[in-house]
Amino acid sequence: MKSVAIIGGGVAGLEAASRLSRHGFAVTIIEKTDKLGGRLNQWHALFPARRPAKQLLEKLNSGINNVNVVYNAIVSKIEKNDDGFAIQMDRNRMITANAVLLTTGFDIFDASRKEEYGYGIYDNVITSVELEKAFKTGKPLKTVQGKVPRRIGFIHCVGSRDEKAGNLHCSKVCCVTAVKQAIEVKEMNPEAEVFLFYMDLRMFGRHYEELYREAQQKYGIQFIRARLSEAFENPDGSLQIRIEDTLLAKPLKMTLDLLVLMVGIQPYKKPDDMINLLGLTRDTDGFLLQEDQYILPFSTGKSGLYCAGGITGPKSIEETLTEARAVAAEISTFLGDSVSYSGSELVVIGL
Amino acid sequence: MISFGYSIQKDRQIDFDANSKRIIDFIRTEEPSVDWCMNCGTCASGCTASLSVDYSLRRMISLARRGEEEEIISHVNRCRFCGKCLNACPCGVNTRNVIYLMQIAVKKIASHEI
Description:
The complex is a heterodimer of chains A (351) and B (114).
Chain A: E1 3-7, H1 11-22, E2 26-30, E3 45-46, E4 51-52, H2 53-62, E5 68-70, E6 75-80, E7 85-89, E8 94-97, E9 99-102, E10 107-108, E11 125-127, H3 128-137, E12 151-158, H4 174-188, E13 193-198, H5 208-217, E14 222-225, E15 230-233, E16 239-245, E17 250-256, E18 258-263, E19 265-266, H6 274-277, E20 305-307, H7 317-335
Parallel strand pairs in A: 1-2, 1-9, 2-5, 9-20, 11-18, 12-13, 12-18, 13-14
Antiparallel strand pairs in A: 3-4, 6-7, 7-8, 10-19, 15-16, 16-17
Helix pairs in contact in A: 1-7, 3-4, 4-5
Chain B: E1 14-15, H1 22-30, H2 42-45, H3 57-66, H4 69-75, H5 84-88, H6 95-110
Helix pairs in contact in B: 1-6, 3-6
């Protein structure tokens, strides 16, 4: 039986593992934490339909009954041999595999690097990730001072489309996330005034535009085309922001009780990063360079070594899942797929 | 008092906290479709009045949302009610009624009704 090692047990890793094990391969997921699901574990509800993240997590976990998982594992070395790869991990653990799939994902921009927004300095400046965690608790949203926030602002593009922050790229999913979170805030607190400060609203996916329209029409969420330069804290813990209302070409100041920073997606570059470990090449945006963006998007340029998901740039869960299925098909082809699909009438004869 | 020719210039910036939103609130009650405006400017690009005077319905709605009454009062009567904007709006805003209601709101402010 041919084997596949998947490094990273997030959305991409789980879906690829599920597909590959259904194709009859021996699949091992190497996960650095003690839990599968990756960043999905931090999320409360998913755009655009606001489906509970937990639901998808359960679905993904149900697909890996025949998959071997190594938890709390840091890959220290991968050696190529005639047959495939020998993967060494910490605590002297080692596995071999005929193909390796990298689904190690991305990193989140550290909002404290945009010091002028006051994250980590002012009480009531939080990130979109923290807001999502707050939704997950099910408790009503409060300021640090214990007040129900009456005016909430979302700042788009924090650490995205910002050369000084080192990220020129658009993180893509934050626009629709802001709209989703704004609606959730409004549902929790219908009296609140909610503002989104955006440069462009990039509602690229199916039903995203509808969600944006719903935010305006049904929830009265206000969109102001502006990019914040700096925020100040008032003695009562509220925040003073000054922006340019670019559509009126006038500066504008307002007080907010809570400021939410839509932190961007950036390349993962921490010491356990696989791109550096394997000597792979980064593209100009810092994400992994694909062998060919159109024709070979899942190839790293090294035979038998594949990639999918956030390692090659910001993606929605929907896109990540699609990539996971596609890369599973590629790996099957590479390893010589001649097995019957279980649970299906389809039979693929050796390619 | 000696006049030195100096004066204190009014702050140009929009003071969102201080500005009254009575105009937009009035329009919204009568014509909720005003909230559907996404600031594209299609209304203003086809506007017959804008060819000869400084007038943009897109800007008028933005001003109302921010409570910038001064500019609304000076510009609100520039519309000729031809209704081209109504045909153009991709968001389904009842644009002609919006500007009509904006004029009513300005009158109500003058007569202290709102």
